[in-house]
Queue: 4 jobs
Job 1
Amino acid sequence: MRVLHVIGARPNLMKAAPVFRALAKQPRAQQSLVHTGQHYDANMSGAFFPQLGIPEPDVNLRVGSGSHARQTAEIMTRFEPVVRQWKPDIVLVYGDVNSTLAASLVCAKLLIPVGHVEAGLRSFDRAMPEEINRLLTDQIAHLLFTPSEDGDANLLREGIVPAKIYRVGNVMIDSLVDLLPKAIACKLDSLPERYALITLHRASNVDDLQTLKRILGALVEINTQLSVLFPVHPRTRQRIAEWGLKTGELCLLEPIPYIEFLALQRRAMVIITDSGGVQEESTYLGVPCLTLRENTERPITVSLGTNTLVGQDSKKLSSELSNILAGKVKKGVVPPLWDGHAGERIAEILCRCFG
Ligand code: UD1
């Protein structure tokens, strides 16, 4: 069985690693990792491979940044010859980034089966580029590996036949479970006793001047009551610089490697984010999470977990934060099948189908 994994952006790495490692234990599986180069800074990509226990990619397509059309087209153009040459039995794509959709389209036209890991999630907000990537990838994938029941329901509603859907659990949580002991042991120097951890990169929050200005203003205000630690995504850093926005006394950090970031998450008093993965990780860790989005494709983090959607409403953010500071925190449970074994379940299914 020849399995080709496509990764491109930071969150893909934590999702692909457990599947890659589980397949490495299967004697009949041959694997190759192709990196599209959508993310290329060392601290957005390269630094993660040794921590996650996966090899450097066999191929890097080096597409880099660009408009959605250019990035998607460039990935497709450069990926097609790799697929033709390597002749995989199945191509695995992860999550909802441009690399996910671009690789899936190439395979659909070459009649190569695609397995979509983290299928079925929906925000029902088609203004999000990721929602378009999710919807289209799921329509052309052959095997759809869902993290939770809502994923199955969404796919069935969209006319996907039940035989293609496999509820396997959450692969991103596999990486967390695997590396949590290292995160617990991780020494972080000069951390404040209590702090809020921030991540912010969604186009809807950072590509509009007034919105970003308002969010930064709210964070500066929070920083007067509770230290704010803010590892800044390159996209956000670029906008802050371009518009000369004020960040006051905020502690702006470079993007942080995976284990250290997990360590920061588990010790945080609250996490404020617009990331998908961080909503899940905070639910698993039982840390309150305030999400700066109007919707989420991961509703289970709200219904079962510690997540609360605050949108772009500074008043709601401030009142939810006051509750947390007063000790009134949302208690959550870990959703079913978020147990560290999703990658193994995917490997077993692939062996049954292609082995
Ligand atoms: C992408 C995904 C998003 C995911 C996020 C995780 C899409 C549509 N978006 O968003 O779903 O949550 O990755 O980080 O696929 N840049 C660098 N160095 C890098 C990468 C990016 O400087 O290594 C800068 C560039 O200026 C680039 C910008 O960040 O133009 C945006 O990068 P891009 O890959 O287009 O989208 P992300 O915002 O990272």
Job 2
Amino acid sequence: MKKQAAQRALLIVDVQNDFCPGGSLAVHEGDSIIAVINRIMPLFPRIIATQDWHPPDHVSFASAHPGRMPLDVVDAGGIQQVLWPDHCVQGTRGAELHPRLDARPLGLILRKGMRRSLDSYSAFFENDRRTGTGLRQYLKGLAVRELFVCGLATDYCVKASVLDAHRLGLRVTLVTDACRGVDFPRDSVREALDAMRKAGAALVDSAALG
Ligand code: VGL
Ligand code: ZN
């Protein structure tokens, strides 16, 4: 069998209604990246989208911790867990991919954060850093060596996915104008960009792709 040529892939992280204006965990201007993503998708032979996909009583929801508020930080089984408003509950409209995102070219829609007691920011590993999502094997099976990443939110799921991809030996490029962040705590978007750059990811504007 002929060896497949090394391929590029685009990873679109959590472009879901709840992370866009009007959603329960809306990221400022979260929907402004959709036109950019739709424009760059034709440049990639393989495109994967993730969906944050939580059960209704998920450990990351402040509502699951009596007396706690969103943005409080708790210890959840030895993992520092930021608490969020209920978001991306399985099967709800908030969990659907944003309707303006062109879903036709998506080769894989990967759901994460499905275990009640464990969150998953990264598209590769859950927050215990051990449980894989299968994305690593999927990309390996397609001989993908170079991953471009975009989506929501820059300082949480995008950052975690970029750092894991790099750790797994992929060449990683963040498409900066196709991301938006929560920016909590203050400056966390800037810090996330610095951390990704320091780890060895390239940061580029979509205009430079092609
Ligand atoms: C995310 C907070 C909670 C994200 C998901 O997609 O970045 N952030 N769940
Ligand atoms: Zn979540």
Job 3
Amino acid sequence: MIRRQILKGAAGLALTALGAAPAFAQQVVKVGVILPMTGPFASTGRQVEAGARLWMAQNGDTVAGKKIEIIVRDDTGSADQTKRIATEMVVNDKVAVIAGFGLTPLALSVGPVATQAKIPAVIMAAGTTTIVSSSPYYARTSFTLSQNTVPMAQWAAKNGIKTVVTLVSDYGPGLDAEKAFKAEFESKGGKVLDTLRSPVMNPEFAPFLQKAKDLKPEALFMVVPSGQGASLMKQVNERELAKAGIRIIGTGDMTDDDQLKGMGDALIGVVTSHNYSAAHDSPENKAYVAGFLKANNNLRPNFMSVGGYDGMALIYKALEKTKGDADGTKLIDAMKGVAWTSPRGPMSIDATTRDITQNVYIREVKKVDGQLWNVEFETMPNVKGDVK
Ligand code: PHB
């Protein structure tokens, strides 16, 4: 007790001696970024962190008179760790915002922390629709699976596909995609022959792919989380689904730009719908991709990276609106309704839901200049995150 008082006194003296120190302390706004940097979803962590750092490299580390500092920590993909780290960041590091969250369960684990601490939790990666409504302090700069799926179902129905089997990862985002696909596709006259679900951890796709093949649909619609696309597509090729006359369609999670280059020419012609392609044709994206490749040893940015980049953009824009006031409730309020042009195209944060509204593009895998790319050919403008 006495020791603590002495220490407090000493700290007070030290601050007084420094004069400007207490004011200086408030001049730094800390953003705690929690991501899977190791384990099976490490590519998500690497991409989101690189995106966030690129925003800061391009826009400086000062906004509205405040110095921005990001603290990145690895939750290894475990929700218990995400929550523990978030709590430590609030209590010990005094962060003004928490952000990141590479998978739905990780994002969901921090809701109570954000609500209690009254600080924004910016979802830069996860995609289950209901996450944002579970705390008034969530905002999202990633995507939702229903948002990315509905345009695919519409495209399939419009392009003469009559029967589909769906195969999704058996957890929040996969189940959202399954539900959205079936509802939209069947409302347009199509038929979903079966809804298959594979475990999210250590997935073994072969038995599900065989089942899908045996059902002889015209197309197989698939959704797996970022990081699993390459192994899924390898097994799709091994089962020769294309030769059996089954078209491969899905969300862009499976033709992930992080892995696409190495997936092989069998991917050419695969049609997906998604919110971001590294091949998106705009000046903003050309600058983004060039900057990203340069800063990351030629790693191609994927859709997770723009979640990190735009997550930092959102935090900067909110601080500009509050004129540097980092009070959590003021910041989350300032995030509502913000709109800007991202490397992905126009985007905004819905003023009511705090979820992301953005364009969704239909793309086809093509070989351009010797590399595979998701080449966009149709745009569904301003799709809401909670699209039904
Ligand atoms: C999620 O867990 O919400 C998630 C992760 C990776 C994706 C999509 C959704 O590619």
Job 4
Amino acid sequence: MTKIKKIGVLTSGGDAPGMNAAVRAVVRTSVYKNIECFGIYKGYQGMIEGLIKKLNARSVNNIINKGGTVLKTARCVEFYKKEGREKAYNKIKEFEIDALVIIGGDGSFTGAIHFNKEYNIPVIGIPGTIDNDISGTSFTIGYDTALNTVVESIDKIRDTAISHNRLFIVEVMGRDAGHIALNAGIGGGAEEILIPEEDMGLERLLDSLKKSQKSGKSSSIIMVAEGDKTGKNVFEIASYVENNMPEYEVRVSVLGHIQRGGSPSCFDRVLASRMGVHAIDTLLNGTYNVMVGIKDDMMVLSPLEEAIKGQTEINKDLIRVSEILSI
Ligand code: ADP
């Protein structure tokens, strides 16, 4: 095992608020520990193209509060192939980089696993994704900020919903995981929450709306995750409700990419800072090919293979809470 002297840090896949705070922590911890740190721009694409620059403690000034990623990110098709990864290896060798910190989601970690197997480069993953769909950590960087963005949006939608006696169907991100919908739905006081993990059925939705209407509710917010299990998109759900309850004025709001942007919450900044420090500590202690996570407010490590495995569980208690409170 060679002593690590130079590390590269990159952000990859979907951007998430708090990635910059993680980059800052990785760079500053490296400098603190007398390790040279290189920023690799545009994720794996930058590794292939050699978009690599040495960073120092001052390079990451004033970014802790910024959304997006100053290192940029990219989806890199070439990295899926052996030849692409070989080009990437040759480039990082030119810079004598001997370990990598990858900030991204499960796709980025899958790429990192292949890269490590082929070239034996030590890698550490930091989970950065708004979806919170990575095993081995209770929270991913960006998730808390995204929840707050969604709740703020729902509060605004509620103002107009109440004023017009309208039913709003709000689509939030989450193709495979309902964490955002479920949590922001409860936080925003949504009447029903449709998620990929549970098929509630559209009839149940109608029953619930009818009951609420009888009890005097004149406006409602339904939260739908992109990949909700009914298999219907928000516009189809809206038509279904309108056809069955013509007395309701239904509107659809797709929150889309605003959920990714914005200044990271304090929670995400602290999480990213802790994960960045812990990633460098871990590398220097000689532990590789793991992801840094948080559980019970403690930093934990899990093999990258575990981190990308399957689905994360939703908290069933939240479903119960939502059902009780939406009467
Ligand atoms: P995320 O990391 O947010 O899940 P992606 O799934 O887009 O985002 O993955 C980011 C990048 O990681 C891809 O553009 C690609 O370069 C690399 N990657 C993803 N999956 C693989 C794979 N199976 N093999 C090699 N590289 C991969």
